[in-house]
């Protein structure tokens, strides 16, 4: 199972590179531009995948070597982490193929898997001996906590499931649900600063994009994103002070 984690961690950047070359169809940026929403982030935000893939590779190699091979906590999360990496990898060609409904199921599955791993490491891991695993999986889960809802919003627009001319109402509902997910997971992780940092990165990128976006309701969506970030930061400070 440790080897499977490593193989899946390698598959993610390889498939990402192939996706950007057009091997599976249009790249993610091209498809995303076809379906503008009130929850899309500025393009620079997605460069964080480079950091995510690097940390996941380091974690995967680290957990498969040395004394870590006998660590019970790393062993328990290994199959779930492998599943999260696998789902992350296959999401990319599915999105390029325009299978948006399947993509939503896949990305929320990846979020559930990696968030569970991050919670286990935050609550049951030794801070020193599991630091790399905690950092890699917390950041991956943090980004997916936002990206999953961005993906859901684009799916709604792509299939015209709700109004594409008046998007603010249902976008606010998605923002509310995403805020609950972020706050609940952060609470279960006892104020995870890595999770917070990557969520703030994404939320600020949404604010940047939406303040310049011509869609009706974009400015409101921008400030909602910033407000969620402030709530999450405040919660993290309170949780960490309580722990002390």
UniProtKB/TrEMBL annotation:
The keyword Transmembrane belongs to this UniProt entry's keyword annotation: yes
Where do the TM regions start and end? 39-61, 73-92, 98-119, 131-152, 167-185, 192-208, 220-239
Sorted alphabetically, which keywords does the UniProt record give? Membrane, Transmembrane, Transmembrane helix
Kindly provide the name given to this protein in its UniProt entry: Tryptophan-rich sensory protein
